[in-house]
Amino acid sequence: MEKRQCPYCKGPCTKNGRQRGKQRYKCKKCLKTFQLQYVYQAYAPHADALLKSLLKEGCGVRSISRIMGISTKTILSRMLKISHKLKAHRLGHPYANYEMDELWSYIGSKANTVWITYAIERETRGTVGFFVGSKTKANIRPLVNNLLLRNPKHIYTDRLNIYPALVPKTIHRFFRYSTNHIERKNLTLRTHIKRLSRKTICFSKKKKYLEAHLRIYFWG
Question: Distance between CA atoms of 162 and 138, rounded to whole angstroms?
């Protein structure tokens, strides 16, 4: 008799009834249930991993829907579900250098411009936090405070006039070319995330979908 392995943890499995004529299995190790063939591909074990990969490769929601054979509504709800499980990585070490910058996009329509403010660690290029909204002190302060908790050596920004009021003068740097790394990451983001492309009709209909996509791209 052929032994089945769990697609999630590779543990041993036993039969666990049938669903619409399809044999189901249960893992003895992680206790998850599954079946070998799914009529609806959203339930396949590899669906979440494939969705994350396609989101990172510049595919829009409708493109992913056609590739995976799943409805757009399910793609969007699955994006939210995946993103809620993700947390920012604890990168680097105390006294690391960080860069902050902003890039704009649309939400709902091209009449509604929104700003994405985020920070990266200079050495690893990893993203440590972001915020979607207007460029105000109240909105950007939590992101700056998160960096200050990491005991940074320096925080590099552009010459946006609100940064001097948020970042201590002793560690703030804003000379020319000080944000080269994050500026290059801006270009990468616009290349890899279709909804951030400058000249496009593909943009987020709601803020929560843009935030979910960014969380998956940064930390997924």
Answer: 10
Assign 178 to helix, strand or coil: coil
Number of separate helices (H) and strands (E) present in the chain = 6, 8
Cα 1 to the chain's mean position, in Å? 43
Tokens of residue 166, six digits: 């948020």
**Token pair recorded at residue 183:** 């500026």
Beta bridge partners of 106: 113
b/e map of 30-54 (b: 16 or more CB within 10 Å)?
eeeebbeeeeeebebeebbeebbeb
Q: What is the mean pLDDT of residues 52-69?
A: 89
The answer to whether the predicted template modeling score (pTM) of the entire model surpasses 0.85 is no
CA–CA separation, 141 vs 153, rounded Å? 18
Residue-wise pLDDT tens digits, 113-168: 999 999 999 999 999 999 999 999 999 999 999 999 989 999 999 999 999 999 99
